[in-house]
Amino acid sequence: MELKEIFIERQEGILRIAIKENAKLKECFIEEESDDVFAGQIYKGVVKNIIPAIKSAFVDIGLKKNAYMYLDSKFKNTSVKKGDEIIVQVVKEDIGSKGAKVTNAISLPGRYSVLQTLTKELTFSKKIASAEYKQEVSRSIVKPRDAGVMIRTNAENVGIDVLNEEIGRLDSMYRELVKKAEFSIKPGLLFDDGGILGRVLRDKVDEVTSRIYVDNSEDYEYIGRFLDDNTDVSAEKIFHEDDRTMLDYYGIEKEIMGLRREKVYLSCGGHIVIDRTEAMYVIDVNSGKNVKGSNIEKTVYQTNMQAAAEIVRQVRLRNLSGIVVVDFIDMVNPQHKEDVLAVLREGFSSDKSKTTVYGFTELNLVQIARRRTGKPISDYIEEGCSHCSGSGSRLKFSYIGLLIRNEILRISSDRDISHVHITVNGIYEKDIREDLLGFVRSIGALDKKVYLTSFKGETFRVEPLIFESQIQNLEHFRIYG
């Protein structure tokens, strides 16, 4: 039986959630505390400009960059004009100089249903096949007269009374935010669906979720209320009390760091290479060391099948979106190609980000289109490197601080350490010296004496200074304490 564990770690300024299935990391979500918009948020906006040529309206939602809204008769928004006050929901986050994409088609998602404002119909998830169940819901549902309701797959696991209770709650929430918009003078946020924590609990916790680990007391209580309110799940919640950060304690930090690597090895001896270009992601499949068998066709098939499963995992783990082009090893057998496509489609079938897998082209390429929801994981752990004139990337300075803090906590758990020697790659030394106090605070070393040296090679090293001779030799490099 499949077992799922969810790890929820909240540190200063950042929330990270990792999901493991059968002890293997499957998905990872990161959210930084900032003024950035997130998909699902609902704002009061004011139309600032209409651009007929691109069928778009630019909307002030109270942030630095105006959002843009596509105008189409199916959204019943072609009559909006400059100065109109409207309620909009974020569909895609802003990227670069481009503002967030918003829509006036408001959807309030619950665990069992979704309230939809541009329709009055009752619809069902495509995964609900039972005609008898649909008839029962249609007879028994208490649907708002001026809104539509979509019944989610999870609804099959609960009674009609639970479903009706949630629909009523969603309807009340929508009426409250409409009222809030009417009394708000300025554009701004009306509703936040709980960020990634709310979305993960709503969409990822299911009947096979055995444990939810959490290290923040407020999150612990929030999760407790969620479990109490949703009778179709029975996960055990566990509070992490160790000084070491949760993801480091359970070995997940190393796995997240591994997502920076372009090359991913397969158990058969082959590997895939993931390359990010300006327009798309390109994934190349290679047989590598998988060349022992005498049957080349069988070897190619085995490598491609393993690669397909790993590609699904890596795309979801890294949150790759847009266009992904996969160059599989050439196959002649049509059934082998169908088997590979089946692995891809089955793997993405439970993905909440809408994903379409297209068939093989004449060049044996497979195209995957995945809807963007949030940033790729690399954007949270990497940043541009000025030493490469902007053409390269490095581990984020803030992430380096988090990893150093983990290491200091690890070595301090064994003995009382007062002197810490940190060796960093030279590209980070300037950042550290520009704000020494801020750096020392971020690594949790305000009660220690900190020594700093730089080198070329690995990103960083942390070692305790135990002997007086060590301390004396490095006194010249002391930066704090």
**What is the average of the pLDDT values?**
90
Largest sheet: 6 strands, mixed
Taking Cα atoms only, what radius of gyration do you get, to the nearest Å? 26 Å
Find the structural class using helix and strand composition: alpha+beta
Helix content: 25-40%
Number of helices: 13
Number of domains: 4
Total strand segments: 27
Oligomer description: single chain
Description of the molecule:
The protein is of the alpha+beta class and 481 residues long. The protein has four domains: 1-37 and 192-260, Nucleotidyltransferase, domain 5, CATH 3.30.420; 42-105, Nucleic acid-binding proteins (OB fold (Dihydrolipoamide Acetyltransferase, E2P)); 261-370; 396-480, no CATH class. The protein has helices at 131-140, 160-183, 195-204, 217-229, 246-249, 252-257, 296-318, 334-348, 377-381, 397-412, 429-434, 436-442, 468-474, and strands spanning 4-11, 14-21, 24-32, 42-51, 56-60, 67-70, 85-92, 101-103, 107-109, 113-116, 122-124, 148-151, 188-191, 209-214, 236-239, 263-265, 271-276, 281-286, 322-327, 355-357, 365-370, 382-385, 392-395, 419-425, 449-455, 460-464, 478-480. The radius of gyration is 26 Å and the shape is globular.
Brief summary:
The chain is α+β, with helices and mostly antiparallel strands and 481 residues long.
List the helices and strands and how they pair.
Blueprint: E1 4-11, E2 14-21, E3 24-32, E4 42-51, E5 56-60, E6 67-70, E7 85-92, E8 101-103, E9 107-109, E10 113-116, E11 122-124, H1 131-140, E12 148-151, H2 160-183, E13 188-191, H3 195-204, E14 209-214, H4 217-229, E15 236-239, H5 246-249, H6 252-257, E16 263-265, E17 271-276, E18 281-286, H7 296-318, E19 322-327, H8 334-348, E20 355-357, E21 365-370, H9 377-381, E22 382-385, E23 392-395, H10 397-412, E24 419-425, H11 429-434, H12 436-442, E25 449-455, E26 460-464, H13 468-474, E27 478-480
Parallel strand pairs: 1-14, 6-8, 11-12, 14-15, 18-19, 24-25
Antiparallel strand pairs: 1-2, 2-3, 4-5, 4-7, 4-13, 5-6, 7-8, 9-10, 10-12, 16-17, 17-18, 19-21, 20-21, 22-23, 24-26, 25-27
Helix pairs in contact: 7-8
